[in-house]
Write a structure and sequence with these properties.
Blueprint (H helix, E strand, L loop, with lengths): L8 E5 L1 H4 E2 L1 H21 L6 E2 L3 H8 L9 E7 L3 H13 L6 E4 L16 E4 L2 H9 L4 E5 L12 E5 L9 H8 L3 H10 L11 H20 L7 E7 L6 H10 L6 E4 L5 H8 L3 E4 L2 H7 L5 E3 L7 H6 L1
Parallel strand pairs: 1-4, 1-6, 4-5, 6-7, 8-9, 8-11, 9-10, 11-12
Antiparallel strand pairs: 2-3, 7-12
Helix pairs in contact: 2-4, 6-7
């Protein structure tokens, strides 16, 4: 009987997101494939350091119990099985319950996302992420960070931007191409009751929200149980553009624990209090700032990234 993935939150993670591959990547760039292969074999038993997505992946997997497997993480790797063995040894060392992998030997692995029902692909390879987004796959590029995880904390805190991440970039396009703040606020007030379209990470957040509901049910049945997931919305929107956000999330039945409608206030100033284990945003200026303090993922989607595409 086939292993069923349709009832699970499936995350596809590249080894470059899960672990620190800076040294081995340097060997690959400077000395090419044969030297890289030798390096990985020679260092096979030297455990890789933790990467940007490690805190997220570790806590997601800890939601699973023997009775209920809600989350599946699958390794999608540009390595081949030979060079990828070092990654599996690191997975085993850290006690991560990841047993499935796809190795593609230098190709972009995102094309297998549909086959494994993945609602998110995280990678440290920006070109791979951009290509995935181009083909409408939900993907994010992990930015380097100095963050040090407190592993005694069991709660998982996620933070999401709204436009261009949870929902599409239609309203953001009005702001950037329709004359700025005042026309944008007028547009959002007039369309406050109109449901917004799904963005790249909509399905991922929707599934996180379903897991939260499951956890709340467990808490209601057993008040000694402590729910493990907390979700924050961190957006540059403020009133009057807030109403459409709330009504859209309500219509999609998505739970948000904390919401920051900042209207230009620096996002990192509130996130330093919230302390996310992961933050998703479509705008590089926000990511570059927050990534200094917390694991952050750039979603290179939509109008906010058009100039970046031109530069490519």
């Amino acid at each position: 009987m086939a292993f069923e993935l349709t009832d699970k939150l499936v995350i596809a993670v590249a080894s470059s997101a899960l672990f620190d591959l800076s040294e081995s990547d340097k060997v690959f760039r400077e000395e090419k494939e044969n030297a890289y292969r030798r390096y990985q074999r020679e260092n096979e038993n030297n455990i890789l350091g933790k990467g940007v997505a490690f805190a997220l992946i570790k806590r997601l997997l800890e939601i699973n119990t023997k009775e209920k497997q809600l989350v599946e993480v699958i390794l999608l790797s540009r390595n081949d099985p030979d060079t990828g063995l070092r990654v599996f040894k690191a997975i085993e060392f850290y006690g991560l319950t990841i047993s499935r992998a796809i190795f593609v030997a230098g190709q972009n692995p995102f094309k297998y996302m549909e086959a494994i029902n993945a609602s998110l692909f995280l990678s440290g390879n920006l070109a791979d992420v951009k290509e995935a987004i181009k083909y409408n796959f939900p993907a994010g590029y992990v930015k380097d960070t100095d963050y040090k995880d407190d592993e005694t904390e069991k709660e998982l805190r996620l933070a999401f931007d709204f436009d261009g991440v949870i929902v599409d970039d239609a309203s953001e396009t009005v702001y950037k191409k329709g004359g700025g703040l005042l026309p944008y606020q007028k547009h959002e007030r007039e369309h406050a009751n109109e449901l917004m379209g799904e963005g790249p990470l909509f399905r991922f957040l929707k599934q996180i929200s379903e897991i939260q509901k499951y956890e709340i049910t467990k808490f209601e049945e057993d008040d000694s149980y402590k729910p493990k997931i907390r979700v924050a919305l961190c957006t540059a929107r403020n009133a009057p553009a807030h109403e459409r956000v709330i009504k859209t999330l309500r219509e999609y039945d998505i739970r948000i624990d904390e919401a920051f409608f900042l209207g230009g206030i620096n996002k990192n100033s509130v996130l330093k209090i919230y302390k996310p284990h992961i933050f998703f945003d479509d705008q590089l200026e926000h990511i570059d700032d927050v990534a200094k303090s917390f694991p952050s993922v750039h979603i290179p989607y939509g109008v906010a990234n058009e100039n970046e595409k031109e530069q490519d």
